[in-house]
Each structure stands twice: as structure tokens, then as C-alpha cells.
Amino acid sequence: MDTTMTMSMLPTLVLAQGPVPELVPGITLFHYLAVSGIMFVLGLIGFLTRRNLIVMFLCTELMFQAAGIALIAFGRFHLNHTGEAFVIFVLTVAAAEAALALALVVLLFRRKETLDGSVWTSMKG
Amino acid sequence: MMMDQMMSSLSPSFAPVWSLALSGGGGGGGEGGSALGVLASLKEVPLSAMVWLIPGLPLLGALLAGLCAVLKVRSKLPAWLMVLCLAGSFAVTFWMYQQVAATGGSTFAVVHLFDWINFNWAPGKAFVANFSLYVDPLTCLWMLFVTGLAACIALYASEYMSHDVGPGYCRFFFAFGLFVFSMACLVMGDNLLLLYLGWEGVGLCSYLLIGYFYQKPSAVAAAKKAFILNRIGDLGLALAIMLIFVKFGTIEYAKLWPMLTQYLQMAAAGQFDQIPTSVQLIAVLLTLAAFGKSAQLPLYVWLPDAMEGPTPVSALIHAATMVTAGVYLIARTLPLFQISVAPLAGLEGTWFGFVSQISALEIVAYGGGLTALLAATIGMAQFDIKRIMAYSTVSQLGFMFAGLGVLASYGAAFHVFTHAFFKATLFLACGAVMHGFAGQLDLRKLSGVMWMKGWLIVGLAMLVGCLNLAGVPFTAGYFSKDVILAEAFSVGHFRPLAWILLFTALLTAYYTFRVFFRVFVGPKHYEPGDELHAHDDHGHDHGHGDKHDHGHDAKGHDAKAHFHPHPPGWAINTVLALLAIASIAAAFAYPTYFVKGLVDTSTAQVAAGAAGHTHVGGATIFGYDPHKAMYYISGIVGAVGIITAFFLHYLGRRTAATSAADNLNLGALQRAAQNKWYVDEFYNFTIRLPLKVLSHIFHMLDKLVVDGLVNLAGLLPRAGGAGLRPSQSGVLHGYAVAMAAGIGVLGLVALLALR
Amino acid sequence: MIEKISTLWPEIALFMTTCVVMLLGLSANLNIRKLCAPVSAAGLIIAGVLAFGTTPENLSSTLPHFAMYGKLLAAVVGLLLLGLLTGVADRQYEALVASGRERFDPIRTVRGEFYAFFLFSITGLMLCAGATNLIWLFLALELVSLPTYVMIALSSGRERAMESAVKYFFLGALGAAIFLFGFVFIYGATGSVELAEITRTFVAQGRDGGINAIGLLGVLLAILGLCFKIAAVPMHLYTPDVYQGAASPVTAMLAFVPKAAGFYSLILILACVGWGGGGGLTVTQSAAGSHGALPSPIGEVLTIIAVLTMTIGNVLAVMQSSVKRVLAYSSIAHSGYMLVALIAGPGPFGTDMPSNGFAAVMMYLLSYGITNVAVFSVLAVLERRQADGTIDEVDGFGEIRGLRKRHTGLAAIFSLGILGLMGFPPLFGFFAKLPLFQSGWAGGHMALVLILGINSAIAAYYYLRLLSAALLDSPEASARNVESFERAPLAGRDMAGYCAVLAMVGLIVLPLFQVSGLQPTRWASDAGEYKAIPGLEPSRNNATTLAPAPQPVPAPEARADSPQAAR
Amino acid sequence: MLLLLILLPLAAAILVPFLGKRQVWGVALLGTLLPLIAGMVIWLSLGIDWRSSNGDISSLNQTIPWMPDLGVTIRLGLDSVSGLLVLLTLILGPIMVLCSKTAITERVRTYYGWILVLQAAMTGVFCARDLIFFYICFEFTLIPMFVLISLYGSTNRKAAAIKFFLYTFTGSIIALAGLVYIAWFHASKTGTWSFDLDVMKTAARSMPASTQWWLFLALMLGFAVKVPLFPLHTWLPLAHTEAPTAGSVVLAGVLLKLGTYAIYALAIPMLPAGAILFTPLLAVLAIIGFVAIGLVCWVQTDVKKLVAYSSVAHLGVCMLGMFALNPTGLQGSILYMINHGLSTGALFLLIGMMYERHHTRSMLEIGGLAKRMPIWATFMVFFAMASVGLPGLNGFVSEFMCLFGAWQASDTWLGSHFVAGTPGYLGPWYAVIAGVGMVVGAMYTLLMVGKVVWGPLKLPHDDHGHGHGDSHGGHDAAHAGSLPADLTGREIITLLPLAGLCLFLGLYPKPVLQAIDQSTQSTHKLILDARQTVRALEGGPIIPPMPASNNAAPADGAEMENAR
């Protein structure tokens, strides 16, 4: 399969489908996916490079939201609401995770008085 | 001791098998006869199953001896039982001989005992090697002197071993009986595999008996050496058996001879190039076997060392019987040798190409001749009288092989026959000396033994033996040696061999009488040997070889002062007298054609006769027929040898230690001969040592490379684990990065897989 | 709506139990608080019965019995795990209360929450098994994971548990993000989140030349994300640290529940993709039929993952000095073994047990769950009194050394468990591993089967180390103060002991009881049953006789030369 | 009935942990004696028929359903070959228990329990007629052996046990993979899974030669480790040296035979074409084992290690005979399995008895025991001779047949035709070179006997207050433990049956040869049939056609032409 061809064809996937008009002219599915991808990668990079646990968690939130953007775009592309429904669930889960994360971070901070994730290295090898 | 329990428990189950019905033997003679007229004279005759007693009685004796050991018998009982059994065996043999003689020769009988190795190598095609006895004149000849001598020597040993009464005594007679049984299997087996059983069996008994004084390291080493060198020969025999079977489909003599007819015809017609190399190779392999068992070059080195065993053993096994097994083998399979006269074509280009230039019979002849010469030269330089006898045995065996090689199997067999008696006599006489003088065997430390009180019979027996060995005219040894020499001279292309043999005969006469003149006549003098403590009160259960590291010298000196030689008792004297008479009487076998009759009518000889002696005869010596001229020549040669010995070792000798011969300084030559031409050392450096080094290398390879690779394989996961452990850094970010990287790599892989 | 709910009775039962347990946990009365465990057990049993009785067939069009058996497996192993977990929560605190040094404070007790989270997690696992929809699957997976983060943190007061929790949580979130992104792309490629619909679309795409790029990307990302759940390379790195830090009972749970959830999800997603090589379904009922491989590059990627997972897991386990780390690495390796069967797929016969990789995976999960509980139960029952009087877990090799002399029964269970993990005949572990070989061959994956074999041999080494430490060595000084719960003052010991015995009996009996009704193979065979979508069988390729070549059947190229975007 | 043979020792093993220390030995003896008696009864009840049966004795077949879904059943059966090996196992069982009475004084329950389990597992291997049940029993021998070595062994026992376990385990997993492939091959044809041995044999034989080639390799990896064949043997000396006496006895006596038996009963009949293709290689390895490892024996100083290495060498001959792939070689090889079990097992017993008294196995420290232990010495020489292959004792028959089989496995040599050669893949050169091993065998065995049995009495320093060479102390009380200087009645009873069998099989091997005749003939037939398969692989007639008539006179025309 020729992947490059697939990629080059992506910009042509316009979001105008049948009677539904294009939202922003010239902005295709590809652009949304690109934004989503960039967000995802940014989140990933942030996750890999930051030491602060809260920031790291925020980065994972970024990745989740990147998925959300892609979902919306796909939902629009397929002209169904499944994607949007999915986004709702993703948001909910993200919220639950956030709660968990904050609780955990509090717990950890109590122990070591730091938010640096790299201090937790007693087990290895 | 467990053997007899075993056997006693097993014998009921064997009973039906030992019902001893005469087997048909396959009627091989008849088939072959149609092809060749000569073979038609080979008839199978019925023979009473009684002959199984010939091997059976010695085995019984052995088992009884074993039983004695179990019952902790501390008397001479096992000896008497053994003598009885052996005498019975001899009686049966004699009866068997008469039966065979009555048929007028050229007959054979197969007596089936029970099936041994009997399997199908293909559906319906059997490999058969049964416990069956094959009786023909050759068998009779061999068994007569084997059982006869064994009975005599057992009697001798009953006295000789008397200091060892107890477990050792039982052990001795157990092995003794087992030996006679094995020898009987060897000689009477109706197939080559049973011969092989006897072949290895006598080897085992030889091993056990050489190592009889097992606490003496030299005896243990000698026993081991004998067994291993014999094994090399045995390998040849085993391979020969395989080759015979694959070529002819049988290893039973009765069926084998007819299969050879066609090849023998070719041989008779001189078309040796038509006979396949693989068939000709059989004889070469058999030669290897015979050389091993009969102590021929290059495998002779075990025999002199075998003298570590008790003297009766040396006399019976290592002089009279076992060592002649090689001669028997060749005499038995002579037809196979006759078709192997031509150079072994076809081996060129293989690893064994060098053999391709020589024929099997030439190997036999020259092997024998060279061994005879070499052993004689060594024998001349030795001081240990038993060893001299040992080398003389090797030398005389060489004569026999030379005889076989020049196709005078009658001469060889005759020499075996006479040699058995006179060499046994010689050994037993030496043994009596050894027994009486506490193990003293050095001819420089004994002198005038014959004139001491009670030693006359020993001396006379020794004289008879020496005369025979030296080939003094009209002795048995003279006749038998003459036949071989004459035959050698009469075959033109064996002329060098003939001269070698003649020269050896001269040396033989010399070294034989060297012993006689130094030890038995001359000034009376003796020094006891180093086995003094064996006569101490508490030392009786120790055996000869039981040396103490501590206190030996002091005790020795003390005892030496009181030492008196004890002359042999009635058993030894009787046996010596008997054997001396037998040695003399053996001479009558020549004019009466006793041996010749038996050999020439033996089946192998008849079969071989088919090939004809086309190339034999014709040559002359000094213009005379060698068969006649040799009477005079060898007589003169013998006399020259004796006279030389007389001048060098008797005339003017004042002390035991010195003689006129000491003035002859032959320098390095003498030293080398004394040291057995350094053959043992040569073998040690060229074979044993490299082998040892090789073994160590293999061991190292095994440990380091083979096992090392295994360990390496075991190490790999561990090394991998150790190498990968840092990847588990324990740092959250490290993990995250690694995961992301992993995903990236796998993504890349996916992309590549797509392309 | 009602029919959706009717598929959820076990989960609903569990949820209700969860609520009850949470309430019970707040009681000031110790005896009532102690009811948490029995009530949870009752809930699990009810859920199991409901799963068996109410789960409709053909919930999934391709895997007709998967939901039922998956839920049943969750209930059964959940019950064993529950036994193991008993007495973990609040141990220190309740010891203080019991000694009268502290007064009971409902705020400080976590017992109720602990059981509740456990039940939530099991509920999540059941939901996974019954998932028909990507959203559902995503939620179920999150429901499996989120409670475990808390449970690790709650399991003991030690710093190591914190460390475990932080690593597990953050990396888990990363993994979740990845498979979520994958799900999104699957949706994007097919326009639906219904698994049945996705299957149909993929089949159609496959027949038209291959699953499209976005779909493939989605599946790959989903697989990689799920690798975190099953602890497969490259997402395995957290495993040893997390397993070591958590309390042993929780570790036992971590080793089973998320792994099972991950494999359920993988089965469901891969079933959408199919083993048709070029995409689509391949199962034919005829013995002479052929079946292919996973579409490229999914097959290749999974193969690499499987090989690396097996090998890295085993190789790293060899050098460990901590029992729990060894078990953690071996857990990685076991995932690799199961991946072999997954790659092999449902086999040519669809229903036949040994050649069906799904059935093999289900059977292996059962075996692994039971065996795992047996081993961890021993570690859970033992504890070590430290010099300062505090109580710590048993972990080092030195501490189990000479176990046989001190606790013969525990040593026997431990060694049986280890042998079971090793796959030594005739234990259940062996009969679970045998179908892996069988399905591997049936899938034509010679290299994978051989690597599986070699890895089993490597694994034997460290299992043997554990065995000989426990059975053959003499106790070390550090093992002197290793005590079992029997002498520890508190709680839960009975349950833990029973559970260990149960597990042990299961280990031995399960394979032997094949004669009578209880047949794990039959069960696994049903669980893994795989049906082609009617009317969508691909054209057979020269399927006259199947003559297995010595080489693995080369995966037919995903001949998707014309990249078709959706529509 | 066969199940009884397996269950009896198992039942005893289950009983053992609940017994007092004193009763354990008796129960263990009973647990091994009863199966022996049961086995004897089975044999006697079969009469003479079992000897000539080709294939299983149908009256003994027994099938218990087990895992129908996996295709696994418990199927038991016996043919003449496995029957003989079962007998060997059953005979060695009581001997194992008898010889351990004084040697093992600690942890007796564990010890005898595992011995009994081992006994059951070994019997199971020979009785199994289902590949998975076979594999289960085959593997399950590892655990008892592992325990025996690692708990009751000498200094380096743990490493030895682990090496033994892992080495054989690794090999057999590969073999299992191969076996499962065969089952899959069958399943793919018929749609049902089965591991039934007979079904598998038929199925596997229909594979193309190239498939058989690599499958045979896989199976051999498992089985040759157990044998052990030359480069895969390094676990054996270690395990033998470290194992307790009974462990060594059973290791040499039966466990190694599991490998050879598996090759004979599984690998060759299932994959005859594979066997043909591997024959020369395996024969060369076998010969290297026989000769080179024989030389390695020669430089050992530890008696037990020497005998252990000699096992490798001896099994080299066994494998050579096996891969002659003709009736002679196969029969010799089977006979060798039994004979080696008897004579080498007995040698290990004897070494154990010596070790129990003098606590050393080093030939540098001990020697000349004939003086002190004449009965022991007698047995030692006897079994050494049996092991060397002295005709009249058992070793010879089989050794000769193995070598002869190799020799025969070619119908032409040096350009001439063999009357009694079978179409085969080895030939005289193999036998000639392997024959050297016979000499080497004598060298190392006699070296051992010469050092340990003969020579001046030498005892380890700490063992004997009188120092070296003091032969007068032979009957004093300064020896180890409560054992007398020489063998006790119990020890003699341990050895006597072995000695009796050695002698019986040496003098009258006919019953055994008759028994295995049919089996080997049919195996040979499979090989002959498989030549077509091989030819198809090689793409041409590589094997000379079988001569039309083997009865031809030695000098038939064809041969004469060859000779020219």
C-alpha cells in the first residue's frame, strides 16, 4: 500500500458532504486531523520532557483532547453523532482521571514534599 | 562364585537345549562337493554328543572352584577337583580322537548344544552363531594337547600355588578352569563367533591370571597390557567375522567352505585378480587377530610382561596353548588365506593403500620370521630365565607363523604340538626353580641347581626341554622346526625368510643352552629371591607380590641367612617327568605322521587343498632338496649354537655371576637387546603418549568447547538480562520515553512492512 | 435499550454489591466491616451465575459465546483474587484500633473502598468481555484501570506502593491516550463504533484491496495502547516496578485483571480485522480450507511484539533477586506466549479447540489466573518482621529460601504454582500451553512456535531457581523472621489460606477432571468459537488439500494498492 | 493391567509421606516389588505370544479418555520392545530401593517418595501410546531426578541438577513442538486432533521428505539430549557424578533409554525419511561419542565420572546400531539398551557401595580394594567385563550386533557386492572406525579396574588409621559407619539379579532377539519404503535398488564384474 499517496490524498477529504455545507471553506478533514495529531504529539512531548507530575498529567489531558478533536472531525466527516457522543465519554473519563490524579499527587506530595516525578526511583533493574 | 550359582540356577532351563541332538550341520560338504572333487571327500559324520564334556568339565571345575571360594575352603580341594575334571576332559578328548580317527579322516562332525546369537538380519535370513562344537582332526590335535597339558599343569599348580591356599587358590583354579573351557570353545566352536568367544575368553583368563598377584603393580600393568594388545587383535577378528558374513552369508565352517569353492578354483587357476579385494582383505584382518593373540610383531610386547603371572600359567597359557590360538586360527581358515595370496588390489587410493602391495600370506610369513629373529636377539641378552623363555616362546611362535606363511601348515601345527610339550617342560622347570629359590630367576644368581639335593628331575626335564628347543637332532623340536625351514627354503621367493629363520635357529640353540649352562650346571651357588617373606609364618595369605614398603630389607637380610631352597615335591616332579617324557615321545609323531595325518585330513586343509600348491616347491638349497638337506643343516646349526653357549657360559666358569661371555663386550648393541630394543619405550612414545595427550585434548575440548557452548547458551539469557536491566531504570520519564520510542520504532516497522 | 441492559445483569449485580460494600465499609462496627469480603464474594458468585444464565448468545456476531465465558472467567478468577485480597486493606490501622491505641474513625478506614474498587475493576473486565462497541470498550478498559491505581496506593502504607501507583497511573494514562487515539482512527476509518459494523466495513475494504491507512493506523495504535494493559513490549516497562511495589495480593490482581481486559479487547479488535491476510474473514468450515494471517502490517507488528515480549520478559527475569520482580517479568513473558495464539488466530476450523487461538488464549488466561493466584497467595500469606518491629512483605529470594522447612504446605503450593507457570506436565499450565503450540502450528507460525519453545526453556531456568530456593535450600538468616499469617495477629488469614488451597486444587484437578463434566478445554473451546460473517467468506485460494509447508504460511500481502479513504 | 504398573508405585508414593521413618523403606520396596511381580504375572500370562507379536499386544491395550478437545487420551499399550524396557525398569526399581537403605538416612520420605514417582513415570513412558501422555511421563521423570540429585547429591549437586533439568527440558520442548506439528498435520488432513501414536505414525509418514527432515531434527534435539548423543552429552557426567547411587543407577539404567526408546519408537517410525537423511551425520556423531569420549574416559580420575562418560560412549554404539537402520543394527541397539542398563547400572551400584565405605571416588586416593573387599571386587570385574563387551556376557552380543549392523548397512564395498548386506547408508568404514572404540573401551575400563580393584591397597587418609598399603588391617573395625568391609547380604542380593541377567543375556540372548525380531523387521520395512520419499527429495535415485536376490552365490557374475 502506498502510504504517501494516502497522506497526499487526505487534504482532499472535504468536510462538505451532500447537503451539509462546508463549515470553513478550504478546511478539510486533513486539517482537523493535523491539528489533532499536532496536539497529540505536543502532549506526548510534554509528557516526556516535563518533570512536574501535574504538568505531566495535563499533557495526557492534552492527548485526550486531541483525540476529542479528531472524533468531532470524524463525526462530521461521517455525518453521524457517534463521534460527538464518544467525546462526551472521553471528557467524562478525563475528568475522573483528573480527580484521581490530583488525589494521587496530593498523596505523593505529602510523602516527598515535591512534585517531581523523577524522585520515585527506588525500584529498578 | 556367583557364576556357579547362576549356572546352577540356570541349568534346568537349559536342560532341553542341552539335549544334545546332533545337528545336521547344513550338509555343507555335499553342496561344495558337487563343485569340486576334492571337497567331496569332506564328509559329515555323526558323533556322540558326549563331546560337550570337553568344554563342560573344565567349566564344571571352574564353577566348583568358585563354589569353594564361596564356601571359604582352605585346602587344596579346588586343585584336586580341577585335576579330576581336566583329566576327564582329556579322556573324552582322547575318545573323541579315536572316534575321528576311526572314520579315516577328511570328516567332520557338528554337535549342537544350544542357540547363541541367532537373529534375522532380513526377513527369513538368519545370522547363526550357535553354541555348537565342530570336530575334525585339527580339533582333535589341538584339544589333545590342550586338555592333556592342562591336566598336567593343574597338578603341578596344586603344589606350586600351595602357599596361597584359600581364596587366592580358588581364584587361580577358577580362572584356570575357565581358561580351558574358553580354549575348548575357541578350538571346538563350529563358527567364528564362538571362536571369538573363546578367543576373548582366554584373553580374560590370561588377564586374570597374569594379574593373579594383583597387589604387585607390575602384574596389574602387565595384565592390562596383555588384554588391551589382545583387544587390538580381537578387533581384527571381529571385523573379519563381519566381512566373512557379509561376503558369504555364514560364519559356520561347515557352510563356509563350500562357499569358497569358486574362489579356490580361481586361486588354483592363478586368477587372483578375479577375487574381490574385500574377500582378500579377510585374511589380512585375520592375520591381525592372530598376531595379537600369538604375540607377533608388532603386538608381541605383552607376552614377555605376561610372565608376571604364576609360572603354571606361563607354561599353559603363555607358552603351550593360548598363544597358539593364532596359529590355530590361520590353520583353521587357511582357505581364506589361500585366496588372499595375490596383492590386495583395489585398496589403492584408500587409507589402507600401503597394504595393497603385500599379500596376507606374506604378512604372515615375514611377520613371523621377523618376530622370531627379534625375540631371539632379545632373549639372548636377558638375565631373567623366565623372560628368556618368554622371548623364546615369541620366537618359536614366529617360526610357526613363518611356517603358515609358506603354506606349511603341517609344519606349523607340528611345531605347535612339539613346542607345547617342551616349552611347558621348560617353563615348569623354571617355575620349580623359582618356587624353590623364593622367586629367584636371575641366571647370575643361580648356578648348578641340577646338582643340588632333590633337583635332579628338574634339571633333567630342563635338559630335555633345552635339547628340544635347540633342535638337537632326533628330538621333537628338531623335526618340527625342520619341516618349517625346509618348506621355507623350498619356496623360492621366501628365500630371505628362510635364511632369517635358520639364523634364528642358531640363536635359539645358543640362548637356550646359555640358561642351562648357567643355572643348572656349573658351580653350586644360589641367592634367594625377594619373596622370602612368603615363607614367613604370617605371610601365607599374601601372595608373591605382596611387598611391604617398610621393614622389608631388614627382614629380608635376616631371612636370607637362614634360607634353604626347598626342592620340588612329588606333584611337580611327576609332572616334570611326565612332560619330559612326552617331549621326547612327541618326536615319534614325525615318523608316524601322527600330526601330519591329522592336519592334512582336517577340513580346512582339504578345502585349501582344492587350491593346490601350484607355486610351492621346486627351489633347492645348495643344489639339494631342502627337505633332505635341512636334516643336516639344522642339526649343524643347533650344534653350533650349543657349542657357543658351552664355551661362553660353561667352560671355566667359577661363580654364578660371571662367565666367559662377560668378556664379550658388544656395547650399545648388547644394551639395546637387554632393553628389548626399546620397543616398549618406542610404543610408549609413539602411541601411548600421543594417545594420552589426545585424550587430554579431547577432555579439554569436551569441557571447554562442547560444554562451553552449552554454558554459553545458558549464559546468553543471563547476559541478555544483565544487558537489558539498565533499561529498567526505575525513572518514570525513562519509561515513558522508551515506550514512545518503542511505538515509534514499531510504527516504522509497520511502514516498512507496508512497502 | 432494554435488550442492552439485559446483557448487563452480571455487571449490574456487581455494581449493586459495590454500593453495599461501600456502605458496609463505613460502619463503626468491626464485625460489620468484616462483612465486606463475604458480601463481595456473594456478589461475584451471583454475577457469575447471572453471567452464565443471562448473557445472550451472539452478542457479537463473530464471537458468539465470548461474552458469557469472558464474564464467567472474570467472576471465577475474581473470586480467587478476592480471597487473596482479604485482609490487605486497613491492616495496620485496624491493628491499632484493635489494640485500643486509636479510636475508630470512619474517614480513615479504606476497607469499603478497597473492596469496592476491586469489584469495579472486575465489573470493568466483565464489560470488556461483553463489549460490542468501541465506546463501551474504552469505558470498560478505563473502569478496569482506574480502580487499580487507587488500590495500589491503598494496598500498603509503604513508599514503594506510592511509587508503584505514580508509575502505573501516569504511564497508564499515556497508554489510555494511545489506544483512545487508535479507537478514534478506527472510527474515522469506518464511520462506526459498533464492532459488528466495523467488521463489515473492514471486510468490505479488505475485499476491495485492503483496509485503508487510517483504519490500519487506528488498529495499530489500539494494539500498542492495549500492550500497556497486557504488559507487552514496548509498553511493558512499568510492570516489574509496579508489581514489586504493590502488596502481593494486589500484584496478583494486577497480573490478571488488566491483562485479561487487554486480551479481551485485543481479541475483539483483531476479530474485526480478521485473518484474511488482505483483510476480511477467512474462516471456512472445511478442513481442507486455508486460512491466512493477520493483514500486513498488523501481523508483522504483532509478531515482533510477541517475540520481543516473550524474550525480554524471560531474559530479564533470569537475573532478578526479587521474587515479585521475577513473577512480574514472567507475567510479561506469558503475555508474549498468548500473543502467539492471538497471531495464529481462530484457525481453520473455527470451533475446534486446539487450533483456535482464541480458545487457547482463553484457556491460558484461566490457567494463568489460577496459577498466578496460587503463587501470589504464598507470598501474600508470608510476611517478614523487620528489625524495627514493622512488618514487611516477603520479596527477596533469601526470604523464601528453605520455605519447605518452615512452611511445608506453603512450599508445596508455591512449587506447584511455579511448575504450573513453567508449563510442566501434567499440571494445568501444560495443558494450557499445549493449545498455544497447537494453534501456533495451525496458524503456520513455525518461528513463533520455536521461539515460544525456547523461551519456555529460558523460563524454566528462573522458575527452577525459585523452586530450588523454596524447596531445596536451607533457610537463610534473613528468612528467620519470615512469618506466615498464621502467626500474624490479624485477619484474612483463613481466606487467603483457603484461596491458596483452592487454587492449588484447581491447578491439579482441572486437567484431570476432563473425564467428568468440568472441562476447561470444552469451556475454552466454546469461549473462543469464531464464526465468519455470513456471506462474506473470501474466495478460497487453491484450497484443495492443505499441505502444511515447513515454512510458515507467508502472509498474503495486504494488497491495498489503491488507497481508499473512507467512502 | 498396565495402568496398575503405573499406579502401584504412585500409590506407594502417596502413602510414603504419612509413614514413620522406619516403615518407609519397606513400603518403598513393596511399592517397587509389587509392580515387578505384577509385570512378571502379565508376562507369564501372555505366554510366548508376545515375543512374536508385531506391534502392540492387543490384550494389554487400554484407553482412558482424557481431553477429547485437545486430542489427548491416556492410551496404554505394550509391544515387545517397550515390554522389555518396562521389565528392565521394573527390575531396577527394587534394586534402587535396596541399594539406598544405608546410603540415605536423612529425608527418607522425600527420597523414597520421589523414587517411586520416578518409577511410575518411567513405566509410563514405555507404556504410553499417546504422544502427550508419553511426553508427560517423559518430562515427569525430570522432577524426581532433579530432587534426587539436588537433595541427595554430592558437593556440586545444585548446578548439576539445574543443568540436567534445563538441558533435557529445553530439548524436549523442541521435541514437543515437533510432535505437535505432526498432530497438526494430521488434524489439517482429517479435521480432528489426535495424539494417538499409531495414528501419528501413519500421518507423519505421508509427509514429504523435506518436512520429515526438519521434524526429525526437532525430535532428535529432544531425544538425543536424553540419550545423550555426542555433542549434547555434557549434562550427563555432571549429573551422574553428583547423583546419589540410586539416581545414577536409574539414570544410566532407564532414563537414558527413554531417549533411545523414543528415537526407536517415535522418531524413526514416524519420520523414516528424516531418519534416512540424518543417518550419516548421526552415525558420525555416535562414532565420535564412542571413540573420542572413550578416550576422555581414559583420563578421568573420578571413577564415577569415568563410568558416566563411558555411558556416553556406550550409547554411541547403541545409536550407531540404531542408525544402521537395518534389522541387525536395530536389534543390537535395543539389546544394547537393556544390556547397558544392567551392566552400567551395576557398575554405579558398585561404585556407590565403595563410596559409602570410603567416601571417595578418586582413583588417586583409593586402590587395590580386591584385598579388602573380595566379593565387591569379583562383582566389579564381572560387570566391568560385561561393560567391555566380553563374549559370553551381555555387552558383547549387542555391541557386536550394533557394529555388525553398521557394517551390513551397505550392500557394496570396495567395488564388490555383499551377499548379506542390507541397503543402507553406513557401511564397513563406519564399523571399522567404531571398532577402535572397542579397544578404547577396554583401555579405560581396565584402567579403572586396575586402579580400583587391583594394585596395592590404598585407602583415603581420613578413612583409615593405618595409612597406605597396610594389608593387615583388612578386618579391623576402622571403617566407615556400620557397614562391614565387604559387601553385606543385602548388597549381594542387589547385585545378583543383575549379574544373573548379564550372564543369561550373554549366553542365551535368543528369547530377547526373537522378541524384537518382528518389530525391527517392520521398522526396517518402513525405512525401505521411505527411500522413495527421500528419492523424491533428492531428485534422483541416490539409493541403489535392492538386489533382486540375496541368495546369489558369492561369485555371481555381477560381482565378478565389480571386482574387475
What would your notes on this structure say?
The complex is a heterotetramer of chains A (125), B (755), C (567) and D (564). With 755 residues, chain B is mainly α. Chain B has 2 domains: 2-532 and 563-674, no CATH class; 675-710. Chain B is 65% helix and 4% strand. Chain B has a 3-stranded mixed sheet. The radius of gyration of chain B is 31 Å and the shape is globular. Chain C is built from 23 helices and 3 strands. Chain C has helices spanning 2-6, 9-24, 30-33, 36-54, 66-85, 91-98, 111-130, 134-155, 159-190, 195-207, 213-230, 239-245, 248-273, 298-318, 323-344, 357-381, 397-400, 403-406, 408-422, 428-442, 446-471, 493-512, 520-527; strands at 382-385, 391-393, 482-484. In chain C, strands 2-1-3 form a 3-stranded antiparallel sheet. With 567 residues, chain C is mainly α. Among the domains of chain C are: 1-130; 297-380 and 412-474 and 494-522, no CATH class. The two termini of chain C are 30 Å apart. By secondary structure, chain D is mostly helical. Chain D contains 22 helices and 4 strands. The chains are: A mainly alpha (125), B mainly alpha (755), C mainly alpha (567), D mainly alpha (564). At the B-D interface, helix 1, strand 2, strand 3, helix 7 and helix 8 of B face helix 8, helix 13, helix 15, helix 17 and helix 18 of D.
